[in-house]
């Protein structure tokens, strides 16, 4: 028999004996309560009869005289009291013997139960009788279940993402090592001269926009784009691959108080926050690892379509504003403007 199964049976048997012991103890107190009440009830009735009305005094005296003449009924009542007392003591003795027997059985069963193995100090929290402290234990159990569920979903996500042919990472866990050896000059390891040449061509192809770039951290280029008098954008490039996009209003800045470039803070306007989400989706849509320069040109051309953000209506509903928002979506193929709810 399994050890865990034996321990479970012993614990179940101990719980059953505890329930039986509690029932027997309750029965003892019930028997004592019933016996005392019967013992007190008869003298109380006698006092109540003595304190009754005195309407017929002659009848009471006659009854008293008859009682003095015949002492037989009084003797029978005394014997009846003794019988009740003996019955109460007998019942009490039997109940106490049953309790003693159950208690000895419980001690024998409890002695066979081994100590509970604590896996960590967290298990001791469940032994705390204070209710306000036991909440921590339940929350930890819930966090443990949630973590296990997250691991399961992560494994499923890795399986699904492993089937994708477009890999944006050099990790050998997700990319074939043979392909990496044959394609060392990839988009993310492009030389700085190649990146600068590509950005210079973009600046010449879009005369209505202003392109400036710098490398505050050495390797990655931070490209700042000003499109007319409408918006500003910062694009972080790792080689020729777009890694990060942020869009703000024309009256906002990407500089911190100490003059450093700020690529993390979002715009204070909801319309440009929405544009940032669309630009992140567009950077993934135009991603082309085999032709990274074409991917950047296509993304910048799509971004340049927002130069008339506040001056053109939606192609579907014909309105300039929808839910107090201009058309914040541009089609990937023809750059036609649509509201976020009209593009579906």
UniProtKB/TrEMBL annotation:
<dbReference type="GO" id="GO:0006357">
    <property type="term" value="P:regulation of transcription by RNA polymerase II"/>
</dbReference>
<dbReference type="GO" id="GO:0003713">
    <property type="term" value="F:transcription coactivator activity"/>
</dbReference>
<dbReference type="Pfam" id="PF11571">
    <property type="entry name" value="Med27"/>
</dbReference>
<dbReference type="GO" id="GO:0016592">
    <property type="term" value="C:mediator complex"/>
</dbReference>
<dbReference type="InterPro" id="IPR021627">
    <property type="entry name" value="Mediator_Med27"/>
</dbReference>
<protein>
    <submittedName>
        <fullName>Mediator of RNA polymerase II transcription subunit 27-like</fullName>
    </submittedName>
</protein>
<keyword id="KW-0539">Nucleus</keyword>
<keyword id="KW-0805">Transcription regulation</keyword>
<feature type="compositionally biased region" description="Acidic residues">
    <location>
        <begin position="41"/>
        <end position="50"/>
    </location>
</feature>
<feature type="compositionally biased region" description="Basic and acidic residues">
    <location>
        <begin position="56"/>
        <end position="82"/>
    </location>
</feature>
<feature type="region of interest" description="Disordered">
    <location>
        <begin position="41"/>
        <end position="85"/>
    </location>
</feature>
<comment type="similarity">
    <text>Belongs to the Mediator complex subunit 27 family.</text>
</comment>
<keyword id="KW-0804">Transcription</keyword>
């Amino acid at each position: 028999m399994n050890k865990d199964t034996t321990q479970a049976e012993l614990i179940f048997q101990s719980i059953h004996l505890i329930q039986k012991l509690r029932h027997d103890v309750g029965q003892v107190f019930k028997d004592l309560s019933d016996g005392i009440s019967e013992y007190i009830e008869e003298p109380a009735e006698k006092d109540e009869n003595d304190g009754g009305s005195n309407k017929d005094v002659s009848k009471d005296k006659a009854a008293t005289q008859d009682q003095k003449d015949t002492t037989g009924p009084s003797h029978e009542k005394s014997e009846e009291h003794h019988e009740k007392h003996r019955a109460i003591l007998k019942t009490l003795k039997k109940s106490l013997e049953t309790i003693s027997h159950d208690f000895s059985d419980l001690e024998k069963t409890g002695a066979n139960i081994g100590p509970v193995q604590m896996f960590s100090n967290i298990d001791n929290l469940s032994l705390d009788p204070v209710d306000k402290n036991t909440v921590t234990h339940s929350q930890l159990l819930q966090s443990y279940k949630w973590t296990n569920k997250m691991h399961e979903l992560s494994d499923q996500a890795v399986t699904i993402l492993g089937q994708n042919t477009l890999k944006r990472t050099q990790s050998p866990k997700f990319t074939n090592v043979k392909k990496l050896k044959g394609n060392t000059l990839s988009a993310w390891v492009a030389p700085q001269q190649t990146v600068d040449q590509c950005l210079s061509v973009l600046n010449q192809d879009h005369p209505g926009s202003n392109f400036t770039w710098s490398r505050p951290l050495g390797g990655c280029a931070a490209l700042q784009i000003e499109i007319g008098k409408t918006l500003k954008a910062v694009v972080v490039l790792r080689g020729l691959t777009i890694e990060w996009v942020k869009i703000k209003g024309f009256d906002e800045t990407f500089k911190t108080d100490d003059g450093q470039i700020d690529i993390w803070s979002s715009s204070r306007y909801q319309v440009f926050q929405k544009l940032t989400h669309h630009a992140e989706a567009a950077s993934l849509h135009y991603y082309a690892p085999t032709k990274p320069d074409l991917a950047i040109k296509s993304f910048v051309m799509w971004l340049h379509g927002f130069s008339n953000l506040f001056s053109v209506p939606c192609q579907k509903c014909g309105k300039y504003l929808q839910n107090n928002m201009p058309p914040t979506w541009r089609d990937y193929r023809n750059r036609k403007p649509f509201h976020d709810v009209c593009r579906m």
